[in-house]
Design brief:
- By secondary structure, the protein is α+β, with helices and mostly antiparallel strands.
- It has five domains: 134 residues, Calcium-transporting ATPase, cytoplasmic transduction domain A (Distorted Sandwich), CATH 2.70.150; 78 residues, no CATH class; 212 residues, 3-Layer(aba) Sandwich (Rossmann fold), CATH 3.40.50.1000; 250 residues, Calcium-transporting ATPase, cytoplasmic domain N (3-Layer(aba) Sandwich); 205 residues, no CATH class.
- It is built from 42 helices and 35 strands.
- It has a nine-stranded mixed sheet with strand order 14-35-34-33-15-29-32-31-30, sandwiched between helices.
- Helix 27 links the parallel strand 34 and strand 35.
- Helix 11 runs parallel beside helix 30, helix 28 packs antiparallel against helix 30 and helix 40 runs antiparallel to helix 41.
- The chain is elongated and about 130 Å long.
- The two termini are 36 Å apart.
């Protein structure tokens, strides 16, 4: 994303802001500061900058600059023996094709920008609400948002339709989380709901300058001679969606490119593949080699002119300005530079672009990467990075929506020592649940959720027979939560849960007959097995990350007071009554089974409370809630006291549904030596739970290191300790010795030698310190020593910084995959960006290089399309350089026999058509269709991917070998016919003495040799290959005889001087014998070497290809990478995805619409909740999990 300063065309760029001053309803005042408007720009060019910028980018290719220099030389008649149009036409063609492709890509970016910029927003202008396009919204404007609308800019919340200025937002495009978050306006502005009042609002905000910190905002509102503190809880950021709130008003603080979302998007970068960079280097090498050949031939010309050339001056007088033999050698040097330039022909770059375009179409057309559910095909959104897909070493993946569907499903449970959720057959053997497995019939419950699926009918039967434990279990799930119900019509219930886990549990209770139907600050109404039951809500003992549990205290219609609690087993088990010990051991075994399947587990318990005891406790609670010092500690102690002596009910197991095929895909990519790092905005426990579900984390790993230090010193100690543990050093370095962080600077040997498996999990606040220059090397070294790396609670910019760290210090290709706007910066930073079209919008897709619907398609994209593209491109380049060295260096050998006169061996038409017609199509067919192994074996044997990571198929060494083969072929191609001319006579006894016949023999042998060679190098023959190879030979002979015919000579004698040469020479049998001999001598040695290498030193590819040939008649067997089951003691990730503060919010009634709050609310209840606002202001809406 380009910055605002870069868009400003003026020379005087504004100084960076130190603070921002924004006044409401005062555009003239705010315009003085030249703040950015609300227009966004993700495109790279505009009408005026396209031509210069695009040409600048294209001329970063050394070859393009090289061809321009050649063009200039060809315009000088004294040194050019070739026409200038032979260079300028293909050069312009290459530049035009590339420019059109880039323009098309940028056109779609412009269209995307226009769609966003032209969205409508309601802006308060001149006393009324007027519809304005987003791009016309200005800083200081007051705008109105309605339910389910995107927030147009970063705005300060002023008021809303909800009581006390509350509103709910979804931040999926910022941090990937779909659970609702609460924001609250200042109490002094919360009653500005009337347009007239808002027009009179003239407050001024003084705040921090634009930055990319999503979780931090510092500012002050000056209004009515008072100051009011502002923080992040008062802000609605661009990219959020207003939920569950009818309307709200806000004042624009940051707009457009200065919003926090856009500040996190990063800059659109020009991406080039490693092969592009290598080709730049090779072009420089070839140019140096070309100069060396030119110098040798120029020196030869100077010597020849000095010693022999003077003897010809009698009948070949010198041109006046060429009287010096040294100057003649100088001109000859430039002449040979032009003649020999075809070692790097322009057609190479045209062919590369055609191949990349073809590979992109193959990705787009692949039906195995098509998702029928969403009607989404894979799409190659760029055509320049295909072969890079075959060289990826690091994958950086988002979690929510990328690895998971972000859909929680109630999967299993344990109630009173009995497990439910598995399905058994007649032989009492557990059956795997598939789509064909019959679901439980919930038709007995008219309020059931039609989308809920459960397969164990035993649990429904237990509910129907009114099993007390089962009923109490689901009663707890229906009561102990902070979900808000919304009944849009009779029986049509929609639950708004602040975490997907809570929604899954309440939905499960709903289907099993305990329907949560309504709530007020004082009551909860359930529909229990068809009858309405209202419970009095006495207290909510809220969740936090230390307690790891939440409880509710309710009074049932019979007057009994009960406490219901759910939370992590590690804390609930410590609070149980001794009478539950036996059940605890049984439930613990069940929890281990559930966790072993990667399910998120939770323990449920209850307690009967004596009313007198409750009254005493409640008085103490009210006192503790009003103290100023140590309030949190006193409340926690009271909660702990009440939760002692509970009785165990059972446990739940929720599946955070992974996308289909995620564990198999990760396992397969790991076998291909691809390191996968998860970068997520989720909490530590949630991220680790998914890590276990994906088999990235396993209990048989040697160690899982968790780095969660809050200071640089703590982080440094934890990183050093983990690294030394892995490497096995006994000496622990001094924690304060920052300068010794490079003591393990070269750990490449350790990375190869370490067999044990380690994992690294690091929190966002720790990562901020670890990315500092003093610690980034030790972080990278440690991460590369670990098999799995998970970074949690990271911001979008931190994601990009992690990717940049690996790019900067590791010579490895990186790929970033995500589905939300919070992944855009990471996607742009990586060498390859992949967007998943999921539930979080299309921002990631629009910024990506490739897109598809599900993570599992990444396996096929890399192991099939990526590997094939790399293999094809490498074979294409090797063959292309081989044939052009063989073609061009014949001129070099000929120079020693023509007086170094820069005369060409071939007919000029042959030089023009060799790369364009005679040899272009066969090499294109190989580059487009060739396969060393088929797609099934590419997936079955992931290790086939490794040569691309190690850059083995085309590198400087391979270039040297193919160039050497080309030189050898050119040498044999020249000297075998040359030697044959000394002894060869025609059938009529006359000699072969003319240069034209010699040229035809060499040209014919060359075309046959290069086509035979590509036929031998082709692994996968198609009808197209047969057509192109055979067709090229036919076309050569047709054009040869046509251009050397009498008719063309009579029409254009100067352009077609080789009249009758082909007819006369190719009618001689000895000529064909020479061509055959030359072909055999040039081709057979390479064939023998390839045969011996494949049989004596076979690579994995050779072995798989041999196996493939053996099985050719058999139907390929699909590989089945089964999900690895794990046994784990890690449980209760659910509790960590919850958030603090909602309990007090509910009991205060401030999230209830006025019409639903009971008018008979007791004074005591009001007093209990009166301090909620004060408490909420003192704590974060989200509490980071500490390890």
């Amino acid at each position: 994303m380009e910055t605002t300063q870069e868009e400003d065309s003026s020379c005087d760029k504004p100084a960076p802001e130190k603070e921002r001053r924004v006044k409401a309803n005062a555009r003239e005042y705010n315009d003085k500061f030249s703040y950015a408007d609300n227009r966004i720009k993700t495109s790279k060019y505009n009408v005026f900058t396209f031509l210069p910028v695009n040409l600048f980018e294209q001329f970063q290719r050394v070859a393009n600059a090289y061809f321009v220099i050649l063009l200039i030389l060809q315009l000088i008649p004294e040194i050019s023996s070739l026409s200038w149009f032979t260079t300028i036409v293909p050069l312009v063609l290459v530049l035009t094709v590339t420019a059109v492709k880039d323009a098309a890509d940028d056109y779609f970016r412009h269209r995307s920008d226009q769609r966003v910029n032209n969205r409508q927003s309601q802006v308060l202008i001149r006393g009324s609400l007027q519809k304005e396009k987003w791009m016309n919204v200005r800083v200081g404007d007051i705008i109105k948002l309605e339910n389910n609308q995107f927030v147009a800019a970063d705005i300060l919340l002023l008021c809303s339709s909800e009581p006390y200025g509350l509103c709910y937002i979804e931040t999926a495009e910022l941090d990937g989380e779909t659970n609702l978050k609460v924001r609250q306006a200042l109490s002094v502005t919360s009653d500005l709901g009337d347009v007239s009042k808002l027009m009179d609002f003239d407050g001024e905000v003084i705040c921090e300058p634009p930055n990319n910190k999503l979780d931090k905002f510092t500012g002050t509102l000056h209004w009515k001679e008072n100051k009011f503190s502002l923080d992040n809880e008062k802000m609605l950021l661009r990219g959020c969606v207003l939920r569950n709130t009818e309307w709200c008003f806000g004042m624009v603080i940051f707009a457009g490119l200065q919003t926090k979302l856009m500040q996190n998007c990063g800059k659109t970068k020009f991406k080039r593949t490693s092969i592009d960079k290598l080709m730049n280097t090779l072009v420089l090498w070839i140019f140096a080699f070309l100069i060396c050949m030119g110098v040798v031939l120029a020196i030869g010309n100077t010597i020849w002119e000095t010693c022999i050339g003077t003897k010809f001056e009698v009948f070949l007088p010198r041109v006046e300005f060429q009287s010096s033999s040294v100057f003649s050698g100088f001109l000859t040097f430039w002449s040979y530079i032009i003649i020999l330039n075809t070692v790097v022909p322009i057609s190479l770059y045209v062919s590369v672009e055609v191949l990349r375009l073809g590979h992109s179409f193959f990705i787009n057309w692949d039906q195995k990467m098509y998702c029928g559910q969403t009607d989404t095909s894979a799409e190659a959104r760029t055509t320049t990075l295909n072969e890079e897909l075959g060289q990826v070493e690091f994958i950086f993946s988002d979690k929510t929506g990328t690895l998971t569907q972000n859909i929680m499903v109630f999967s299993k449970c344990s109630i009173n020592g009995q497990t439910y959720g598995d399905v058994y057959d007649e032989l009492d053997q557990r059956v795997e649940i598939t789509e064909k497995t019959a679901c439980v019939d919930f038709s007995f419950n008219p309020l059931c959720d039609k989308g809920f699926k459960f397969y164990d009918s035993g649990l429904v039967e237990a509910v129907k027979r009114e099993d007390p434990s089962v009923q109490e279990f689901f009663r707890l799930l229906a009561l102990c939560h902070t979900v808000m119900p919304e009944e849009k019509s009779e029986g049509n219930l929609v639950y708004q849960a602040q975490s997907p886990d809570e929604g899954a549990l309440v939905t499960a209770a709903r289907n099993f007959g305990f329907v949560f139907r309504a709530r007020t600050p004082e009551t909860i109404t359930l529909w229990e097995m068809g009858r309405a039951v209202t419970y009095q809500l006495l207290a909510i003992l809220d969740f936090n990350n230390v307690r790891k549990r939440m409880s509710v205290i309710v009074k049932n219609p019979q007057g009994h007071i009960k406490l219901y609690c759910k939370g992590a087993d590690t804390v609930i088990f410590d609070c149980l009554d001794p009478s539950s010990n036996d059940l605890m051991y049984t439930t613990s075994e069940h929890l281990s089974e559930f966790a072993g399947e990667g399910l998120r587990t939770l323990v449920l318990a209850y307690k009967d409370i004596d009313e007198e005891l409750y009254e005493v406790w409640m008085k103490r609670l009210r006192c503790a809630s009003t103290v100023i010092e140590n309030r949190e500690e006193q409340l926690a102690a009271l909660y702990e006291e009440m939760e002692q002596g509970m009785k165990l009910l059972g446990a739940t197991a929720i599946e955070d549904k992974l996308q289909e095929g995620v564990p198999e895909t990760i396992a397969c990519l790991s076998l291909a030596d691809i390191k996968i790092w998860v970068l997520t905005g989720d909490k530590l426990e949630t991220a680790m739970s998914i890590g276990y579900s994906c088999n990235m984390l396993r209990d048989d790993m040697n160690e899982v290191f968790v780095v969660s230090g809050h200071t640089q010193l703590e982080v440094q100690q934890q990183l050093r300790s983990a690294k030394e543990h892995i490497i096995g050093l006994s000496r622990v370095s001094s924690a304060g010795d920052v300068e010794k962080t490079d003591m393990f600077a070269d750990d490449s040997v350790f990375e190869e030698a370490i067999i044990a498996e380690y994992a690294l999990v690091i929190n966002g606040h720790s990562l901020a310190h670890a990315l500092e220059p003093q610690l980034e090397h030790i972080l990278l070294d440690l991460a590369c020593l670990c098999k799995t790396v998970i970074c949690c609670r990271v911001t979008p910019m931190q994601k990009a910084q992690v990717v940049e760290l690996v790019k900067r210090h590791k010579r490895a290709v990186t790929l970033a995959v995500g589905d939300g706007a919070n992944d855009v910066s990471m996607i742009k930073t990586a060498h390859i960006g992949v967007g998943i079209s999921g539930q979080e919008g299309m921002q990631a897709v629009l910024a990506s290089d490739y897109s598809f619907a599900q993570f599992r398609y990444l396996q096929r994209l890399l192991l099939v399309h990526g590997r094939w593209s790399y293999f094809r491109m490498c074979n294409f380049l090797s063959y292309f350089f081989y044939k052009n060295f063989a073609f061009t260096l014949v001129h070099f050998w000929y120079g020693f026999f023509c007086g170094f006169s820069a005369q060409t061996v071939y007919d000029q038409w042959f030089i023009t058509l060799f790369n364009i017609v005679y040899t272009s199509l066969p090499v294109l067919a190989v580059g487009l269709f060739d396969q060393d192994v088929n797609d099934q074996n590419s997936l079955r044997y992931p290790s086939l991917y490794k040569p691309g990571q190690q850059n083995l198929l085309f590198n400087k060494h391979q270039f040297f070998l193919c160039s050497l083969q080309g030189m050898t072929t050119s040498f044999l191609l020249f000297f075998i016919p040359y030697g044959a001319f000394f002894v060869m006579v025609k059938e009529d006894g006359s000699d072969f003495s003319d240069q034209q016949t010699f040229a035809v023999i060499i040209a014919t042998a060359l075309v046959i040799i290069v086509n035979v060679q590509i036929g031998l190098d082709t692994h996968y023959w198609t009808a197209v290959n047969h057509l192109f190879v055979g067709g090229s030979l036919v076309v050569y002979f047709v054009l040869l005889f046509a251009m050397q015919s009498d008719g063309l000579f009579s029409l254009l004698q100067s352009n077609f001087p080789f009249m009758g040469t082909a007819r006369n020479s190719l009618s001689e049998r000895c000529v064909w014998l020479v061509i055959l001999l030359t072909t055999v001598v040039c081709v057979v040695p390479g064939l023998v070497v390839s045969f011996l290498r494949a049989n004596l030193f076979p690579t994995l590819t050779d072995k798989v290809r041999r196996l493939q040939r053996c099985r050719k008649k058999q139907r390929p067997q699909e590989q089945s990478l089964r999900r690895v089951s794990r046994r784990s003691s890690r449980r209760s990730a659910y509790a960590f995805s919850h958030q603090e503060g909602y309990g007090e919010l509910i009991t205060s009634g401030k999230n209830m619409r006025t019409s639903t709050v009971s008018s008979a609310c007791s004074p005591e209840r009001t007093a209990d909740g009166s301090n909620w606002i004060e408490n909420v202001l003192m704590r974060k809406n989200e509490v980071a999990c500490s390890s």
